[in-house]
Amino acid sequence: MESVNKTAIDSASTVFEKVGEDYIGSKSRFGDILIGAPYSEAFVKAYANERKDVLVIPQTIEYTAFLHNEEMKKVAKSGQEAIKDRAQARRDEIVEQSKADVEKLSNYGDGVRYVTGTGSVATCKVEFVVNSDKRAVVALLKGLRTGKVYAKGIAKAAPDDCFNVHIGKAIALRRALGLKVPDEYLNAPQPTEVRVGDVVHNNRYAYMHVVSSVEGEIMEYANDEGYDWIKIVDEGRINIIDDSREEVGGE
């Protein structure tokens, strides 16, 4: 049986192995599948319809023994590291895009022109109300002359998402202005790299800390609150819950 399985794998152009709810890419002759990356069932079905010789493997003892040998583990680990790097880089891009978007939409701080319900135009300043505890941002369009709030937009991070005030401001301001919110703001990748200024949450002991330094394999916490190993973030025991980093210049 094992030789038959290996023959099928060798002859296939692309191989996915079902692990839990995901399908892990374990071979790609076309070079368009990242080895070790998780893919959804919908993606695999669509991919298989467009390609030839796509093999989807159930998690049997025979297949698992072949795919999970030491060489494949190294390939999968390399693929996962590449995914992490790519996800963090993309999130960084979206944060910078959000900052530039807010600056441009607020006319670089000089205010915006808002068409009221009566057809008149009010010149408004943009004010943001940030509630980090509730992981929410509200954008208010206030008349420069009247102080009246003509419109507001709200952005709130989902329970499992990392809060970022810059992305939140861009979403809230666009909603206040009645503009479309780009998909990348709503579906930004989660951070994968711990940085100074991040707020982290320990899932086991339910504590939160602000990271004050990251050196080697250790992250230290502000106010002499101790340290943790960075690897336990990768293991999912600690999550980055806020990467706004406004206290350190947003970087």
Salient structural properties:
251 residues, single chain, 3 domains, 13 strands, alpha+beta
What does this structure look like?
The chain has 251 residues and is α+β, with helices and mostly antiparallel strands. It has 3 domains: 2-68, no CATH class; 106-186, no CATH class; 194-248, no CATH class. Helix content is 33%, strand content 29%. The protein is built from 7 helices and 13 strands. The chain has helices at 2-11, 41-50, 61-67, 70-105, 165-177, 183-186, 231-234, and strands spanning 14-19, 22-28, 38-39, 54-57, 112-115, 121-131, 136-143, 149-156, 199-202, 208-215, 218-221, 227-229, 238-242. Strands 12-11-10-9-13 form a 5-stranded antiparallel beta sheet. The protein has a 4-stranded mixed beta sheet with strand order 3-2-1-4. Helix 4 (70-105) crosses helix 5. The chain starts with a helix and ends in a 9-residue tail after the last strand. The relative contact order is 0.09. The mean pLDDT is 85.
